[in-house]
Amino acid sequence: MSEGEGCIACDLASGKQSLVGGTIHRSQLWTVEHCFGPLGVGTLIVKPLRHVVRFAELTSDEAAEFGPLLHTVTSALGEELGPDQTYITEWSHAGFVAGHIHFVVQPAWDAQREQFARPGPFLQVAMFEANVPLVDAEVEAFCDRMRARLGSRTDARA
Fold this sequence. Notes:
The protein has helices spanning 8-14, 60-81, 121-130, 136-151; strands at residues 23-26, 30-34, 44-48, 85-94, 97-108. It has a single domain (8-152), classed as HIT family, subunit A (2-Layer Sandwich), CATH 3.30.428. The longest helix is centred in the middle third of the chain and has 22 residues, at 60-81. β1 (23-26) and β2 form a beta hairpin. It is 35% helix and 23% strand. A 5-stranded antiparallel β-sheet has the order 1-2-3-5-4. It is globular and about 45 Å long. It is of the alpha+beta class.
């Protein structure tokens, strides 16, 4: 199996596998997509286009673009949804096997304490356990709004 073959992150980025909402933003090195799991509408994935399994394996160019891109994405997400906090977590394991790194950018609200016991990574675990499916039309509409926000920012373009 070649590098990236059978990788869902690579398949989604290349269009080999369809993704509700499609690509929100893409540079030569990174892509932004909506998360397809039960982490709620507005949860984004920021990932390198190249198949990379460790942050330390990023090229200098990938690393240089990462911070400004993440700042731009979180700023636009904050403007769009107004969360009380935005969580950023790196994910790269599936069954303790290193996979394509991706950064989950998740809006969080203090009011979520009414449904979930704890914030942060505990919230993510609880949301996976609750397994509330996303509504495709809501994801599509959100992605359209984020594309417009990111497309109007010169700092989102590479």
